[in-house]
Amino acid sequence: MSVPGFKRIALAALTFAALAGAAPAHAQSKAICYNCPPEWADWGSQLKAIGSRLNIQVPPDNKNSGQSIAALIAEKASPVADVVYLGGIAADPARDADVLTPYKPAGWERIPADLKDPQGHWFTIHSGTLGLFVNTAALGNKPVPRTWADLLKPEYKGMVGYLDPTSAAVGQIGVMAINLALGGSYDNLDPAIGFFNKLAGNQPIVPKQTSYARVISGEIPILIDYDFNAYRGQYTDKAPVRFVIPQEGTVVVPYVMGLVKGGPNAGNGRKILDFVLSPESQAMWGNAYLRPVFAEHLSAEAKSRFLPESEYARAKPIDLKRLAAAQPKIVERYRNEVR
């Protein structure tokens, strides 16, 4: 064989070896997170930070909590996701469906006991307060609603939105928030069912997916949603929006993450779960107008953009265990009784 021919073969062999050696590293630079929509809770910034800090590329995913659990159950035999982000109402149901595997990330021991699973199947990363996300320009000359009861007034016909409680965790939490505010309990849902039946006569808008952009545009003038979305619209996107904590009261809801059982990139999944509790990530959640689980990472500047603490005094922590127990009944009664 000629020397040039030998060189060509050797070069090809080296190139193949290099590509073969690079393939596993490239594969390890990916992870899948279910329910990480870039417009919700500023996951977009978190995903960018994960890419730059950890060199792990995570594509955005627009499932909600219910859809995520359904997908994880359907994919049990061959999991696709590595980590999942869920509303607190879905934490124990996900654990009970055996789609999560225990992992206690760095800082886990500092998370309050009622904000994590004892075995490490899930843990809180931040929380939000439910209320009214209002586009004041879209209201025209109508006043900003101040109470849950205001939403039933004829002047807001066709202007009130909430996520579908049969599939979205925030929709189910909205049912419970209103139920507790109107004198119901985790066992007695009658006040909420009555409220939503009355609201049905006001032609509400009931999307299945997060609807931030639809409020910003004014398509949905009033959305039952979280403070962090309203503050983002007000301060980051400079939209004519504001957040209202209804006078009757509301709830504070934790959001959690967990490691998917049998996920194809488990090592990367664990790194992501470590990151979301890191000082950098916790500060980012605060800058996205969420209350980080480690309160010391909420900067004074970020806190100054929240409503006064006197307003938040009407917001009470939700009982995750009792909420999870009530979840099937919320879905069943809403589906069967709200018309």
Please give the share of residues in helix.
Answer: 40-55%
CATH architectural type of the largest domain: 3-Layer(aba) Sandwich
Instruction: Please name the CATH topology of the largest domain.
Output: D-Maltodextrin-Binding Protein, domain 2
CATH class of the largest domain: Alpha Beta
Judging from the principal axes of the Cα atoms, what is the shape?
A: globular
Low-confidence segments, given as residue ranges, are 1-28
What's the total number of strands? 10
The SSE string, one letter per element, is: HEHHEHEEEHHHEHEEHHEHHEH
Q: Compute the separation of the termini in Å.
A: 83 Å
Main sheet properties:
10 strands, mixed
**Count of structural domains:** 2
Q: Radius of gyration in whole Å, from Cα?
A: 23 Å
Q: Beta-sheet strand percentage?
A: 5-15%
Q: CATH superfamily name of the largest domain?
A: Periplasmic binding protein-like II
Work out the helix count: 13
Mean pLDDT over the full residue set: 91
Strand-pairing-aware structural class: alpha/beta
GO molecular function: thiamine binding; thiamine pyrophosphate binding
Keywords: Signal
Protein name: Extracellular solute-binding protein
Signal peptide: 1-27
Tags for this model:
Extracellular solute-binding protein, 339 residues, thiamine binding, alpha/beta, disordered N terminus, thiamine pyrophosphate binding, signal, D-Maltodextrin-Binding Protein, domain 2, globular
